[in-house]
Amino acid sequence: MNQKPNLSFAQIFNMSFGFLGIQFGFALQNANVSRIFQTLGASIDDIPILWIAAPITGFLVQPIIGYMSDRTWHPKWGRRRPFFFFGALFSSLALFAMPNSSALWVAATLLWVLDASINISMEPFRAFVGDKLPASQQTTGYAMQTFFIGVGAVIASLLPYIFTKVFGFSNVAPEGVIPDSVKYSFFIGAIVFLASVLWTVLLSDEFPPEDIKKWEEEKLKSAGVFKGIGEIISGIFSMPKVMLQLAVVQFFTWLALFSMWIYTTSSVAQNAFGTSDTTSKLYQDAGDWVGVMFTVYNGISALLAFLLPALALRIGKKYTHMICLIAGGVGLISLFFIHDQKMLLIPMVGIGLAWASTLTMPYSILAAALPSKQMGFYMGVFNFFIVIPQIVAAALLGFFVKSMFNNESIYALVIGGISMIVAGLLCKFIADKSHIKPSL
Questions:
Q1: Could you tell me the CA-to-CA distances from 27 to 32, 193, 292 in Å, in that order?
Q2: Percent of the chain with pLDDT over 90
């Protein structure tokens, strides 16, 4: 295979810009969906099972989309970009609809649609870096994605707070109605999601298969639903060793992250604002403040996106990831001890470190170990090790919070912190052999 040419900063910027919108969708979901569910009448122990849409859709959608995008080619649209566009279109529609939900079951259904659509857009973006960039630029490519993830999440997480404090929109509403500050945040998110993905679709190109005729023949040989499922299953059992090692780290990392996303609002409301009443202004103020907290950790992630490759060059990717995850775990545990809302921003620095590294280092390590013609497929399979811990968390955390912790959800964050520290320690066993200097 011919060596891929180095891309300019502008080219890497354009091919990554769509992640700004994708993270708008994820950040609005992560900071506000539990709030929406509780506003519509969900009890605190119901929240994890309502969130199960997120991991289940990822589990089902990403390997299939990865497999399909590996086998897609259009002279104008390319390989990955059709999936970017259609995923963004349906995500935007779901973002418009969700805050208008009139009942809990409607919001829960729309979460399935939203998360499936986001996954359709997101999975090919990971493979896009492996497709277009030489090994020496792949860490930079994932760092650029992490930068846009951070920027998108900072703005999206802060939107409800901005609408309330700056523009005077109400953050309270009658029982069973989503506040205007949340509604308009989702509307803005829908527009930004579609616009930013279109930026990448229109301003990036893709490399065609080296031998179109041979590629078409191979695609025909693998055609058919059952044939495709068979290839997916066989590929899972033949994944590279480093992928299995990363899988264990990912399991404990994403168990922690999922606990944070579903329980931070209720934890902060109880632990720092002193309320469990979801119809109160105090609870809605807590929800807005969680958006500020998430803004801090995502802002740290964006700022560190281009520093992590430099650190990885000095001490190695796996040790960089180890340090960041341990810092994130300590941050999550410390939330238990903090009751002042402004002080809650300090642990978000450690969580931001962990988030920046989680979005960069595992993918950089993995991309160097994957065959290029199966890049999309294996990146989709790798998502299994993100969604399985979320399914475990969705199944168990509600039981623990209700039966063992007397509905005090802050203990779920402590479990998450311990899990993230374990993930950091397990990085020691990753056989990372990619020591190629990042470059622009």
A1: 8, 11, 12
A2: 44
Phi (first) and psi of residue 175, to 5 degrees = -55, 130
Asked whether 290 and 163 are in contact (CB, 8 A), the reply is no
Question: Is residue 376 a contact partner of residue 84, using CB atoms and an 8 Å limit?
Answer: no
Structural domain range at position 295: 10-206+231-429
Query: How many residues in the chain?
Result: 440
Instruction: Tell whether 339 is covered by a domain.
Output: yes
Spatial contact of 189 and 25, defined as CB atoms under 8 Å apart: yes
CA gap 282, 164 in Å, rounded: 13
Task: Evaluate whether residue 409 is within a structural domain.
Answer: yes
pTM: 0.74
Query: What is the per-residue pLDDT across 287-310, written as a single tens digit (0 to 9) for each?
Result: 999 989 999 998 898 888 778 888
CA dihedral (66, 68, 70, 72) in degrees, to 10, reads -140
Residue 146: name the closest of 26, 32, 323, 288 by CA: 26
**How many domains does the chain divide into?**
1
CATH code (residue 194)? 1.20.1250.20
